[in-house]
TrEMBL record:
It is found in: Mitochondrion. It comes from the Eukaryota. GO terms for cellular component: mitochondrial processing peptidase complex. It comes from Coniochaeta ligniaria NRRL 30616. PROSITE patterns: INSULINASE. Residues 49-196 form the Peptidase M16 N-terminal domain. Keywords: Hydrolase, Metal-binding, Metalloprotease, Mitochondrion, Protease, Transit peptide, Zinc. GO terms for biological process: protein processing involved in protein targeting to mitochondrion. Catalytic subunit of the essential mitochondrial processing protease (MPP), which cleaves the mitochondrial sequence off newly imported precursors proteins. Preferentially, cleaves after an arginine at position P2. It holds the Pfam family Peptidase_M16. This is mitochondrial processing peptidase. One of its GO terms (molecular function) is metal ion binding.
Length: 473
């Protein structure tokens, strides 16, 4: 728990965005690897091909990152992108589901997909010599999926069961409600799975329309990492994806998805006294991936820190809030987060406590710590936070798939992948003055969104909590 929200945010967008130059001793048989760089090429139809070639890697990851997720849906079609991800592996015009599974199995490869609010991703990891087969399979499932009625009905039941499981995960429920209240009645506020009534009603027509309207070359990036030379992947892309539509139709859903959402100060509370804990997320409007405050927001988040009572080092993490919470036994855990999207974000904290008579104390002292960030931040805590951030970034780059995720997300969102050394320099330049300036502009006396689930009788009303956002000591 201590680093999950930071790790989640980095996994979605920071994989590979920074690195540390560490001195290494080279053994006599270790080859000297040239500097690894990201190369990009844009095909005639607008498809971007991006690679990070490692000549000594024995495995490769190839995948397609698509600038379309649940945010590209309407209220009536919410859940379509995730539904489509499930159907992608159920057979194409060239391969039955069994043939597809056997082909992957015989290569010893891994084929997977996931949907987020802004992206849909299909990727495969294999030995280098099997990368061309993986690209062929990805092209097949992206362009030739059958979407058979029988498969749709089977997956409908699977997704409904998945929805039931998600509803049992309190953290997921709280964050879904946080988005729903912060960006209410807007595409970014909807869930990825969609409401159960939509899952029951989605038809083949809606699935086909989603592909037609969103799987276009100008919104897709084919990524290769590991032992795939750039020129080879460009050739494969030209062979398999040249027929993709070049431009996205300017539908009302597309135009709405590209409109910056309004952040709405509000709260949503679901009291359930059968749940033994109070689970509370509080957030201000955060920063987008391309915002100049992006890394300052992450450093500020790391200063607030994370806490897990079950960890042996809980009281010694360096975070002032962690020390105070542990000393007064106010919470089971908390984790700060800075979640970014293409044009907005959420910056805040997720609190879990079983001290139900002290919920107000926990929230009060948490927001008092936020207020402190506007006036008194020390150089020592900024340096600690920067070191933790750089370590998290480096540790999130574990293997070709992690690197591919970083390249795909960055290019599909911002159009370029920042050089890791550049990211490290940006983080190193963040000072305590920058943090206080960020807090004064983004935290001090700002509206908040609150999502609370469980035994939350002790949580004070919105106006009382909002007043703590401008507390003078």
């Amino acid at each position: 728990m201590a680093s999950r929200r930071l790790a989640l945010n980095l996994a979605q967008g920071l994989r590979g965005r920074a690195g540390l130059s560490l001195p290494m001793k080279r053994g006599l048989t270790t080859p000297v690897s040239p500097a690894v760089k990201t190369q990009t090429t844009t095909l005639k139809n607008g498809l971007t091909v991006a690679t990070q070639y490692s000549p000594y890697a024995q495995t490769s990851t190839v995948g397609m990152w698509i600038d379309a997720g649940s945010r590209a849906e309407t209220e009536e079609t919410n859940g379509t992108a995730h539904f489509l991800e499930h159907l992608a592996f159920k057979g194409t015009n060239r391969r039955t589901q069994q043939q597809l599974e056997l082909e992957i199995e015989n290569m010893g490869a891994h084929l997977n997909a996931y949907t987020s609010r802004e992206n849909t991703v299909y990727f495969a990891k294999s030995l280098n010599e099997d990368a061309p087969k993986c690209v062929d399979i990805l092209a097949d499932i992206l362009q030739n999926s059958k979407l058979e009625e029988s498969a749709i009905e089977r997956e409908r039941d699977v997704i409904l069961r998945e929805s039931e499981e998600v509803e049992k995960q309190l953290e997921e429920v709280v964050f879904d409600h946080l988005h729903a209240t912060a960006f209410q009645h807007q595409p970014l506020g909807r869930t990825i799975l969609g409401p159960r009534e939509n899952i029951r009603d989605i038809t083949r027509t809606e699935l086909s329309s989603y592909i037609k309207n969103n799987y276009t070359a100008d919104r897709m990036v084919l990524v290769g990492t590991g032992g795939v030379p750039h020129e080879k992947l460009v050739e494969m892309a030209d062979q398999h994806f040249a027929g993709l539509p070049a431009q996205t139709p300017q539908t009302s859903a597309y135009l709405q998805s590209k409109k910056k959402p309004d952040f709405i100060g509000s709260d949503i509370r679901i009291r359930d006294d059968t749940i033994p804990t109070a689970n509370i997320a509080i957030a201000v409007e955060g920063v987008s991936w391309g915002d100049e405050d992006y890394f300052t927001a992450l450093v500020t988040q790391a200063i607030v820190g994370n806490y897990d009572k079950a960890m042996g080092n809980a009281q010694h993490t360096g975070s002032k809030l962690s020390g105070f919470v542990h000393q007064h036994d106010l919470a089971t855990s908390f984790m700060s987060f800075s979640t970014s999207y293409s044009d907005t974000g959420l910056w805040g904290i997720y609190l879990v406590t079983d001290k139900l008579t002290q919920v107000d104390d926990l929230v009060h002292f948490t927001l008092r710590e936020w207020s402190r960030l506007s006036t008194s931040v020390t150089e020592a805590e900024v340096e600690r936070a920067k070191a933790q951030l750089k370590a998290s970034i480096l540790l999130s780059l574990d293997g070709t798939t992690a690197v591919a995720e970083d390249i795909g997300r960055q290019i599909v969102t911002t159009g370029r992948r920042m050089d890791p050394a550049e990211i490290e320099r940006i983080i190193d330049r963040v000072t305590e003055k920058d943090v206080m300036d960020f807090a004064q502009r983004r935290l001090w006396d700002q509206d908040i969104a609150i999502s609370a689930v469980g035994s939350i009788e002790g949580l004070f009303d919105y106006a009382r909590i909002r007043n703590d956002m401008s507390r003078n000591f």
